[in-house]
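for ur thesis appendix - D-alanyl-D-alanine carboxypeptidase. copy paste whatever u need, i formatted it the way the template wanted (i think)
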Amino acid sequence: MPGFLARSAAAALACLALALLPIRAEAAGRYAAYVIDARTGEVLHQENANQQLYPASLTKLMTLYLTFRSLQQGDLTLDTRLAVSGYAAAQSPTKLGLVTGSRIRVEDAVLGLVTQSANDASVVLAEAIGGSESRFTRMMTQQARALGMSRTNFSSTNGLPDPDNVSTAHDMAVLARALINDYPQYYPYFATKNFRYRGRNFPNHNRLMQAYPGMDGMKTGYIRAAGFNLVASAVRGRTRLIGVIFGGTSPTERNARMAELLDEAFEAGSGTGAYVADAPAAPPAVAATQVASVPFEPPLPDRRPSDTDAMLASAEGDAEEEGSTGSDGIGAMIAMHAPARAQKVSFEPVPRALANIPLPKHLPARRASR
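the 3d part is after this line
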């Protein structure tokens, strides 16, 4: 009898292992990691760095880059009050809960993005700068090309599920480095731990920033097709590192891996001999819309999150695809997939000069309270 029980247990474990193989394979297929020296661009670690994957809310780093560019050019000020359209207000959670016809200051919209990863605020900025979300996504991809992000295509301002919205760990490191170098006066926004808006407190989703010594930004991202993503920047002494992880299996696992990679890079002091600008260009004949080994499965309008989904969403707080957990419930999920969604447009390369606007001499004023 004991022998029979032992054999049965072994068989059950074997079946469980076989059942988990596709899950593990999927997780491995969407994992990528990249660490660079922010000053020199030297690559200190890389795994699948040029694999096209879904950036999720890391997309908002480009939304913020173009916002900072508009501020620097004088097209906007931090106190400019932007109108909230019905389309922006209907975005799926996470969001600030903006109301159609209301207005929001640019600075508050920026803080909403860096803390709450607010999808409604992201669209408000896109419509104000680009005139429409579709035109703004074209500007995003043009700017990506200008920065050397050759394997990135943006078709969303906020990273909600879209099979054409793709990037790589390398390209996100390029973008993070550009944010730090091109707009250092605005980089402190990424260190905001809590944002209070209209009586509500929004903690920053990047919980690792509160636990890892020297980390002062940048951005988390999550949709089911992507896993848990993170772009992080940390400084020790005279060295600043940028780390990127795509496809974490949980916020805890992703954060632990990021801390490990950054520790190793800080201790090593030297890298692979490659530099961030050395990544191969995307083949011109290959469309930037196909993500290998990562099926795109947007949530259906009537989907309710499982207990596991709810636990992960609660732990991370950056649950862009979990519309049914938000205050707008299933209506927000339906709105996300409604026909009114902006049309995708093609892009054309633009000169590098777009990214070389002179920096202002003074830091933007920060408000002590709201």
